[in-house]
Automatic annotation (TrEMBL):
PANTHER family for the chain: ATP-BINDING CASSETTE, SUB-FAMILY D MEMBER, LYSOSOMAL COBALAMIN TRANSPORTER ABCD4
A Pfam family recorded for this sequence: ABC_membrane_2
Cellular localization per UniProt: Cell membrane
Keywords, comma-separated and alphabetical: ATP-binding, Cell membrane, Membrane, Nucleotide-binding, Transmembrane, Transmembrane helix, Transport
Lineage of source species: Bacteria, Pseudomonadati, Pseudomonadota, Betaproteobacteria, Burkholderiales
Protein name (database record): ABC transporter ATP-binding protein/permease
Source organism, top-level taxon: Bacteria
Species: Simplicispira hankyongi
Membrane topology, record value: Multi-pass membrane protein
Start and end residues of each ABC transmembrane type-1 domain: 38-336
GO molecular function, one term: ATP binding
A cellular-component GO term for this protein: plasma membrane
Gene3D superfamilies: ABC transporter type 1, transmembrane domain, P-loop containing nucleotide triphosphate hydrolases
Domain ABC transporter as annotated: residue spans: 406-625
Membrane spanning residue stretches: 32-54, 76-97, 153-174, 180-203, 277-297
Length: 637
């Protein structure tokens, strides 16, 4: 049996779970939600009432049989039809409205999590800081099971309590007292069948709990191994080309087989423990058929109860015993419910941390981005716009730097890791063209992320010119699933431009062959070559007409002639836009009049650099793989 099973059940966080569940019931949807809940609860109570009715019917029916009373037998059958019809109607309506309530609740929670996860780019921050794994699974799977299980468990509990109360009274009334002699004393136990049912259920629950307990961890682990296997399959599908080109299918098949072996191994233990549980459960169930009859038989043979009474006791006993077994029957669901709740609580914590970090950015701790006024004095022929970066220090996400680090100050809380650069300033005026160059891994892409506002790690201030449109094109642009026109207009949803404009842009970007396929839906990131995808990104820039355009190796997949054509197109169509390009190729340089170069900090040591060097040297000593500290310097064009 796997040793880890016991550790996988997670912590009990009932108060936190309640705090997670409660907001829906006090939200703007509360009236509809509480109305639906009241209706579903009423239907559940109706089911219990029908069961009580059926229990009574048992007595009438079997008494009619015993008395060979054919008219009473026919009346009882007619009654049964009414009971069955009522049961069917209630069961159908109950199921329907319970599912409706589940989906309403799930929709509300999903929207809430989606809104918070996507707001302030928390989804990006969580990935960078790895503060919660698989948010996708948590938002889809865990919200679904949490809402579904919360309803079914609480309605199940309600049913059991009401059933218990109803049938304990019945059982108490109909079973009567039993008298026997104990050590010379006459003992009378009132409602003795109730005590028998309690003892029987307690013994059964205890045995079931003992035998079934390991299954909880095993089911948890089964979910995990299944998810791991599914993830492996999806990864192979998504990277089909890369694997095929390397001929890596043998390795992939091996990895998938290994993952499936985990499923099989866990399944083996599930089978073993399930066999024990089914043995106990079916034995318990079989005995339960005759057990109440045996216990009540003395009173029947003594003529104190009729056959109908005996059958009614039998059915009431079953109901009481079933209600008392709720905890054991629901044990696995309860643990799964707690696990889903914990996973969502972790995601919620990660989102809140991202929100807090976002709010805490103040320049000294975390890079802060503001919208400025007319930051640059108007220059002849150019708009009074400039993008400013002041005292910028770039860092990677990760563990906190030790307190007292001279690089980021004592109050560092934003989870910075490795420092990448010494402090530097940058001013990009409207219409200027800047080249950013430096060794691979020196932090050029990180600079773009910091300028865009999605990268808080480090310190300093960035000011975007008020009202200016900024567009960042990475080396590999994201292409959404949908039509080619959707991909071209992204991030706008649907077409924001007329078809003629889209066609014109495609032709200008040397993608004329795709004009006919503008309305074709496809997985365009797999269909288009990397170079075509880069030209499509240029098309986006032409459509969006940004004031500041940032190109991060955006022509790396193009031949030099096409690259030149694309830059010429930008210069022609966006004459007033500032263009900032990261590029390794020397051919790109000629399109730019300004140059920001990353140099090794040792080679450009200054006063600030010296203190940062000290901080980094100790960091690097602990982690020899750490990146080289860089100093971005403006060099003559
Ligand atoms: N999310 C992250 N977590 C940890 N480290 C990161 C993260 N993103 C980037 N880094 C590290 O930051 C450093 C700078 O990365 P960046 O992508 O900016 O380099 P670059 O100069 O653009 O490189 P290249 O020229 O190869 O594209 C690298 O050492 C990289 O490993």
């Amino acid at each position: 049996m796997p040793a880890t099973v016991g550790d996988l059940r997670g912590r009990l966080r009932l108060a936190d779970s309640w705090a997670l569940l409660k907001p829906y019931w006090v939200s703007e949807d509360r009236k509809a939600a509480l109305g639906l809940l009241a209706f579903v609860v009423a239907l559940n109570l109706a089911v219990v009432a029908i069961n009580v009715w059926l229990n009574n019917w048992n007595r009438v029916f079997y008494n009619a049989l015993e008395a060979k009373d054919f008219p009473a037998f026919k009346t009882a059958l007619a009654q049964f039809c009414a009971i069955a019809a009522a049961f069917i109607v209630v069961a159908v309506v109950k199921q329907f409205y319970t599912m409706r309530l589940q989906m309403r609740w799930r929709t509300w929670m999903t929207n809430r999590f989606l809104a918070r996860w996507t707001a302030h780019q928390a989804y990006y921050r969580i990935e960078q800081s790895r503060s919660a794994d698989n948010p996708d699974q948590r938002i889809s799977e865990d919200i679904r099971s949490l809402t579904t299980d919360s309803l079914s468990l609480s309605l199940g509990l309600l049913n059991s309590v009401v059933t218990l109360l109803s049938f304990i009274t019945i059982l108490w009334t109909i079973s009567g007292p039993i008298s026997f002699a104990l050590a010379g004393h006459a003992v009378t136990v009132p409602g003795y069948m109730v005590w028998v049912a309690l003892l029987y259920a307690a013994a059964g629950s205890w045995i079931t709990h003992r035998v079934g307990k390991p299954l909880i961890g095993l089911y948890f682990q089964q979910e995990q191994t299944e998810a791991g296997f599914r993830f492996g399959l999806v990864r192979l599908r998504e990277n089909a080309e890369g694997v095929a080109l390397y001929g890596g299918e043998g390795t992939e098949a091996g990895v998938l087989k290994d993952r499936f072996t985990l499923i099989r191994h866990n399944w083996h233990w599930l089978m073993v423990y399930m066999r024990r549980l089914v043995f106990v459960n079916s034995g318990y169930g079989q005995i339960a058929i005759v057990f109440p009859l045996i216990v009540a038989a003395p009173r029947y043979f003594a003529g104190k109860i009729t056959l109908g009474g005996l059958m009614q006791i039998n059915s009431a006993f079953g109901q009481v015993q079933g209600a008392l077994s709720w905890f054991v029957d629901s044990y696995a669901s309860l643990v799964n419910w707690q696990a889903s709740s914990n996973r969502l609580l972790d995601l919620q914590d990660a989102i809140e941390r991202a929100e807090r970090d976002e709010a805490a950015r103040d320049g000294a701790n975390g890079i802060v981005v503001t919208q400025g006024g007319a930051a640059a004095p108007p220059q002849s022929g150019s708009a009074p716009l400039a993008l400013l970066a002041q005292g910028l220090v770039l860092a990677t996400p990760g563990e906190l730097l030790p307190p007292g680090s001279p690089a980021l100050g004592d109050d560092t809380t934003a989870g910075h890791g490795q420092i990448l650069t010494t402090p530097f300033d940058l001013r990009v005026n409207a219409g200027e063209r800047w080249l950013v160059s430096g060794p691979s891994g020196s932090g050029k892409s990180v600079l773009f992320r910091a300028l865009s506002g999605i990268w808080p790690y480090g310190r300093g201030h960035v000011q975007h010119p008020a009202g200016a449109r900024l567009l960042f094109l990475p080396q590999k642009s994201y292409l959404p699933s949908g039509t080619l026109a959707d991909a071209l207009c992204y991030p706008a949803r649907g077409h924001t431009q007329d078809a003629a404009a889209l066609r014109g842009v495609l032709v200008a970007c040397r993608l004329g062959a795709l004009v006919e396929r503008l309305e074709t839906a496809d997985n365009w990131s797999l269909r288009l070559s990397p170079g075509e995808q880069q030209r499509l990104a240029f098309g986006r820039a032409l459509l969006q007409q940004p004031d500041f355009l940032f190109l991060d190796e955006a022509t790396s997949a193009l031949d030099e002639e096409t690259e030149a054509a694309m830059y010429a197109l930008l210069v022609e169509r966006l004459p007033h836009a500032a263009i900032v390009s990261i590029a390794h190729r020397s051919t790109v340089a000629r399109w730019h009049g300004h140059h920001l170069r990353y140099e090794r900090a040792e080679a450009a040591r200054g006063a600030a650099g010296a203190t940062l060097d000290t901080a980094t040297a100790s960091h690097k000593a602990a982690e020899p793989w750490a990146a080289q500290l860089m100093r971005p310097v403006v060099v003559a064009g």
